[in-house]
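Example record for the data management plan.
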Amino acid sequence: MNAFGQMFRVGRQVTMLAAAVACACALLAALVATDANAATTTATARPSEGGAAAHLKMPVGSPLKAGKRGSAAAGLFDSRVSFRNSYGQTVWVAIMKYNPDACGAYGNWETKGWWRLAPGEVKQAFTTGNRYSYYYAEAADGAQWNGQYGPVYVYNSAFDSCLNIGSTAARGTVGMRQIDTGGALFHTVNLIP
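Corresponding structural encoding:
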C-alpha cells in the first residue's frame, strides 16, 4: 500500500473514532440530562396536625428510567435521599423504600429506622432507583410527620425489616408520607416547624 493509501486509511479510522466518541458523549449527556433544574430537589414538611392519619393506601412504585434494575446505569443514577432537621428539636426518621431483592416475599418494601438528626443536621438516609419512597418522623417534643401510607411496624430501637413482617417486639404501626424524587439525583426532605 502506498503512502497515500495509508494516510487515507488512518484518516478514515480517525473519523470513525471521532464519530464514536461523539456518540458516546451524546449518550452520556442524554443519561445525565434528567433536567438541570431537577438534579437537586428539596421538599419541606411540617409536622402533622391532630392524630395519626388513616392507613388507607399501600405504597406505589415507579422505577426511574436511568436506574432500572439490570441496566448498565443502575445505581449510577439512583436518587440519594437525605433529611434535614430544621425543626429545632432532635428528630428521628424511619423510611420505607422499594427493595424487592430483600423483601420480595414480604411486600417488596424495606422498612428501616432510625436516623437521629440533631437540630440543623443533614443526613443521607438511602439511595433508591424508585421514584417514590416513604418516611415517618418524630421529634423529641412529640411532633410527628406521619401520613396515609402503611401501616408500617416501627420499633423502639434500630430496625431493618419488610412491610409485611410484623413482630410482637414492635411498639406499634405508623402511617408514612410519600417522597417523590421526580428522578432528581439528590432529594432532601426538610423537616420544619
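Summary line stored alongside the record: Confidence is low (pLDDT under 50) at residues 30-37, 66-73.
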